[in-house]
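[job 4471] stage=fold_predict status=RUNNING
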Amino acid sequence: MTDTAPASEVEAEEGRLRRHLGVGGLSAIGFSNIVGSGWLFAALYAAQIAGPAALVAWLVAGVLVTLVALVMVELGATRPEGGGTVRWPLYASGRLTGTVVGFSVLLSVGATSAELTAIVQYAGYYLPWLYADDALTGAGVVFAIVLSVVLTALNWFGVKLFGRVNTAVTVVKVAVPLLTVVLLLASGFDSARLTDHGGFAPYGWGAVLSALAGGGIVYSLNGFQAPVDFSGEARNPQRTVPLAVLGSIGLALLLYLGLQLAFLGAVPADALGSGWQGVNFESPFGQLAVALNLGFLAAVLYGDAVVSPGGSAFVGVAVDARHTYALAKNRLLPRALMAVHPSSGIPRRALLLNLAVIVVYLLPFSGWQSIVSVMGTLYLLLYLAAAVAAEVFRRREPERLSGWVPGLRIITPVSFVLATLFVYWSGFSDLRLALPLTLIGVPLFVVLWRRDREGSLVDELRRGAWLVVHLLVLTLLSGLGSFDGAGVLPAPWDTVIVAVWAVIVFPVAVRSGVREPVLAS
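[job 4471] inference complete, writing structure tokens
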């Protein structure tokens, strides 16, 4: 069966994309998508859980995230396409999986509105009339909407302009944290902090694993898939996409390690009276800068608290447009949204739809923000589906392997297990909202199948059933587990059980795709 718009139509629109992005531009996209305002707090949270051993946790997270990213590297190198992360689940696992994953991606546009809200919140430090009582004021909502229009306009005129603007923003996003590391190491670093308050691992080495999720370390390194969604606009994607994905992870990891080391060495001794768990700052690096008489740095940090989420939102607007464009190719959205503007090479209709969605997300409906805040979790489903897709493609067409990822047959199941854990570690407070919302994609699939009447409904349900069952079981385990759940499954056994479940599901998911291949453009 054919699960997408006609091949000639898709190829015609794909051919209008401009291949202007090189390694530098793609790497800047990846780095900017990874490093938002969270860098201001990640070092504090990690230190509270693991103490100085948080440095080891960052290294472990770098390895885990890289293993997941290698799947994206392989797919981006061998199957470059605009919004590819949305297309591959459809190619590999059929329309049910493609619809569920695609619907989750459509919902995750809310993550961009959350970044815009963060910008206004930080700007409220200087302009208090924008943010009050833990919410945007009326003026704050208007300001956020205007900002979303500006970011859309900067994406409007071509990927080359987008790349240049984002590279400039990325320079700032690198410079400010790097300046913070250098000044804190030079002005206040005391190596005794690494050993004198309970030792290097005051809470045991198990705390290192706890910090991966509870300290936000793994999530601080997420977002590396962004260069892959621009693979249709990359020069020589077989080379540039892998270098950009791995390079952006490496740069972000080095930056986070530097920040963690600087934070650990600069915390005043009197703040450690109750150990690292008792360290608490509202603005960690800003308050350390003030304590060390670095008033200039404190001012710069508050300014960067606006710039960093602004850069992430800028990339988010662009990535969302590629996703919407790809969803139109998948026929989850009207085909008119697949149109690429001939002279600019930008899917402008997709940009406009996403702008409208962002504006709706920004409106202060009752209880709305509690839902929007979990939308970023939905991006993690792309990693699950990509691991399955890579293994399905490896078995179907081994001759197309790029050579970038030796041992792919081992890496794909490991990536699937890790991606499942990333979802689980998000915590039940997020997953109890995010996963049921995602499963709305199932009745949506049925509606779309009734519209098109292509192929057997039973075959499609059988092909994609693994994802539905996987998400239902994950929701149940999350509710019983130790990450905001009831605690019936205590740590670390809940993580072990989730990993074992993922090991069981993966071969089932792969067999479903290999046994019943999808005919797609």
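[job 4471] summary: The mean pLDDT is 87.
[job 4471] exit 0
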